[in-house]
Amino acid sequence: MLKNLRSIDKFSFSLFIIAVILLSIFVLIPVFTVVLNAFEEPNGEIGLQNFANLFNTPSYRRGLINSIITASLTLITTSAIGIPVAYIMTRYVFFGKKVFSLLTILPLMIPPFVGALALVGMLGRNGIITNFLQQSFLWLGLNISLEAGLILPDIIGIVFVQTFHLWPLIYLNTSASLSKIDPTLEESARNLGSSGFGLFRRITLPLAMPGFAAGALLVFLWSIADLGTPIMLNFTEYSVFQAYNELTIQGGYREMASVISIVLTGISAFVLFLVNRYVGLKEYATVRAGAAPKSIQKKIDKKINVIVVLFLSILVLISIIPHIGTLLMAFTIRPSYGEWIPKGFTLDYMLTAFADSRSSLAIANSMVYALLASFAGIFLGASIAYLLVRKKFPGKSILDIISTIPFAIPGIVIGLGYIYMFSQPIIGNFRLTSIWYILVISYSMRRLPYTVRSSHAVLKQVHKSLEEAATNLGASRIKSFTSITLPLITPGLVAGAVLIFITSFTEVSTSLLLQPIVGPFGVYARPLTLQILLQAKGGPAATRVASCLGFIQIIATTIGLYITNKLLGGRAGLAFGG
Amino acid sequence: MVYVKLENLEKSFGLVVAVDNISLTIEESEFFTILGPSGCGKTTTLRMIAGFYKPDRGKIYFNDKEVHRLPPEKRNTGMVFQNYALWPHMTVFKNVAFGLEMRKLSKEDIRNRVMTALDLVDLEGLGDRTPDQLSGGQQQRVALARALVIEPDVLLLDEPLSNLDAKLRVEMRTEIKKLQKNLGITTIYVTHDQKEALAVSDRLAVMGKGKFEQVGKPLEIYTKPSNKFVASFIGLINLFNGTVSKIRKDEIWIRTNEGLDIIAGSLEGVKEGMEVLLAVRPEHVEVHPQDFVSSEGNVVNGIVESVEYLGDLARYNVKTKYQIINADQYSPSVEKSFKLGEKVMVYFGKEDVHLVEVL
Predict the structure, then answer these.
(1) Residue A18's domain is classified under what CATH number?
(2) Rounded Cα–Cα distance for residues A191 and A577 (Å)
(3) Nearest CB partner across the interface for A463, out of B77, B85, B146
(4) How far apart are CA A19 and CA A448, in angstroms?
(5) A27: how many CB neighbours lie within 10 A of its CB?
(6) CA distances from A21 to A5, A15, A326 (A)
(7) What does the radius of gyration of chain A's CA atoms come to, in whole angstroms?
(8) Which residues in chain B touch residue A484, judged by CB atoms under 8 angstroms apart?
(9) Which member of A465, A466, A473 has the closest CB to residue B99?
């Protein structure tokens, strides 16, 4: 095998070796360590005792069941919203369509963690909308108490909050598939006598299935690994949260954290397997001769137009509750308990945030982490994609598989693995977990599958003959790469890097779990997400400061999305999700 | 001027032998075509000449110089790709100028030569456009200009016309041929379209399953196909499998496997009892009314099974007792043509019966 490996050029060979080493140290071995830890019994032997404990302890068992039910329910609610919106947006021409196609992107602009914070502030106990409704009920003479808030720390609350930011994943992926369907495929079905719902069921839906399945998979994996929402809602009977607690509480049951993580990983892997087996995520390649016909877009009559606009308007109105909530909490003076009308505009919370060195340093820290993670991530991701697209060598499928692993494993597994592996001193007193590099590494590794996939797509677009034409005309390999390939792939790669930046800037799981001591600007290493959490749990006034910090994440995300949209031509949402 | 010599070239992909020990010399300034069905190894051969594949065995010479070890950028060939491979991020001018920039010409020179090249392919004034603003035919011309501007030793064309519509294809092939003759560049053209190959080539090679089945001038290959593969690949043909039954002074009798007796003029090297494959082109077969008689040649009665009007000719499928015979009738008219189901006589002269191969 090694001899065959050398049949590829030295440069590619070294890339391959570096990629395999990095992936082994920062993905494979950490995950393996967690697995080992899960089987380690109190007496130091290997066994299934920890797993037995999980299934025999009611709270852990309920946590697991809750997680599975939540993920399934969220998948249903997001599909119920996402599929109709996708169909409407790709197939119909109607009044207000342009506006809505912009507005449907709004949920992507708000990081889920910040969204959850805002929703609790709006709809939770003493929330702005809660108080408004409570007062309206009182005025109407209705005896309904909303004391506990509209979203409670339970399954429904989690599903509600998750649905807010996950439905666009279904929408974007499904509509990508829908809009790619060659109209002649539907026309030929019509020609053979199919129409209406039958046509949708027999032709359109199966063709759009790969897109929907990709979106559904993202939603399920995201939901089951979600740490931010249960923390914000303080819903403790949720597996990921339980694992997090066992790990962060003094004297916690660490092995249980491993067991829970492994079980969640198992569920994710199983779902991934099912989807791959029974639906398939590959787009159907359409063989097309001649020019691509324009996709079919039907005009709809006025009555239906009104219904469509009404439906989309309600959707958008509900979707922007987190945005409005963040703005209200960050920039208006807090009303007294039970009131909802703000006491006026203020910049005090924002000024407090910047005056507090812990908060302002957290912003600076996260900037540095995300920036470095995007450089490292795009470099590694593009190198792997290059090998996968352009080279033939044994071990290629292995590289493909291990670079996809982070896709299916919850962030908490990576965090746990790093803690187990790197909290031992490497040289002298140097522990990798004490220094901020660990966050940069975890960010770039967690995002890697997406980066590889997007770079893969970018490289695929550059047909091999474009490079060959250059060498044929006398350009060396290096010259043909720099003058032909590089300019063609740069926009796509930059877009990929920007996406790593915004997902790293707002990352939750490992940001809360890994808590290095030494930061880039001294002894303070907290990332922004962790600072938001600590502020959010610090009482009503601190929550307002947390919203200000969340607002900064929103701004960064929005700018990032804008740039990727420019570079990719409106397809940025697709690369999103994780 | 350059001649190209291939010597025992071989190339396999895994277990599939793509090119199987071929040798060939292409003369200076010759327009040489490699013709064959898809998967026959023609593109592989071309890509070995360009340097994109390394041959497993064998040698390639440009004049006396061995080139098969040189990387593509050192061979000075100009290649036109099937998908044109125009760089989408460069203008037409930049695309054409690229090869000259690699050759480190002065800006002034590059400008002049690009302009001349664009003129040559009738694209003057379109230098500032990007490839996606051009029609298919125009893109093709840019690809051609880009290959020609470097004054290559050999021009390589990989199915350059396959993405164009039928009318444009005919126009472009005439134009390419004219350009090639004026510039005198040794040209290797790969195509699966036999009409194209016959129309443009000085010589061509018919390729099947990695081997050259026949190499020769278009007329030679059309009229004297040397085996069944070539005979049936080039144009429509009537094939007869049979055994030589008797040889007279200027007549040879063959009984086909179906029992039809065919009289041929002279068939070289044929002896009684030999099994042979004979061919008659449809344009040499005449269709006559039922009462037709002839004292010499071959007459068979049959029924018109289908008629295709192709404008300048009508193509008949005549079902005989033995086998279906195709016949082309030139300048068909309402009075002279035959109807579906009509009983007719087909006739072909003994000189028009050709020996394809002895089996």
Answers:
(1) 1.10.3720.10
(2) 39
(3) B85
(4) 11
(5) 22
(6) 16, 10, 43
(7) 25
(8) 87
(9) A473
Q: Is the CB of residue B135 less than 8 Å away from at least one CB of chain A?
A: no
For chain A, the straight-line distance linking the first and the last C-alpha, in angstroms and rounded, comes to 36
Instruction: Say yes or no to pLDDT of A41 above 60.
Output: yes
Half-sphere exposure of residue A463: CA atoms within 13 angstroms, side-chain side: 11
Spatial contact of A273 and A90, defined as CB atoms under 8 Å apart: no
* Strand ranges across the sheet with B211-216: B77-80, B154-158, B186-191, B31-35, B203-208, B211-216
Write the single-letter amino acid at A68: I
Please compute Rg for chain B using Cα positions: 25
Cβ atoms of A371 and A440 within 8 Å: the answer is: no
Task: Give the CB-side neighbour count of residue B252, counting CA atoms within 13 A.
Answer: 24
Map residue B43 onto helix, strand or coil: helix
Per-residue pLDDT tens digits for A423-474: 887 777 778 888 899 999 999 999 999 899 888 888 888 888 898 999 999 9
Assign B142 a pLDDT band (cuts: 50, 70, 90): very high
In angstroms, the CA B110 to CA B95 distance is 12
> Is B1 an interface residue toward A (CB < 8 Å)?
no
Q: Do B150 and A473 touch (CB under 8 A)?
A: yes
User: In one letter, which amino acid is B236?
Assistant: L
**Residue A357 domain boundaries:** 8-40+347-578
In a domain, A364, yes or no: yes
Element (H, E) at A528: helix A528-536
Distance from CA of A487 to the nearest CA of B (A): 8
> Residues of A235-273 as b/e, b for ≥16 C-beta within 10 angstroms?
bebbbbbbbbebbeeeeebbbbbbbbbbbbbebbeebbe
User: Are residues A474 and B103, on separate chains, in Cβ contact within 8 Å?
Assistant: yes
B52 and chain A in contact, CB less than 8 A = yes
Q: Which chain A residues contact residue B50 at CB under 8 A?
A: 468, 472
Kindly report the nearest CA distance between residue A472 and chain B, in angstroms: 5
pLDDT of residue B152: 92
ipTM for this model: 0.74
A-contacting residues in B 260-279 (Cβ below 8 Å): none
Number of domains in chain A: 1
pLDDT of residue A193: 66
Residue A177 falls within a domain, yes or no?
no
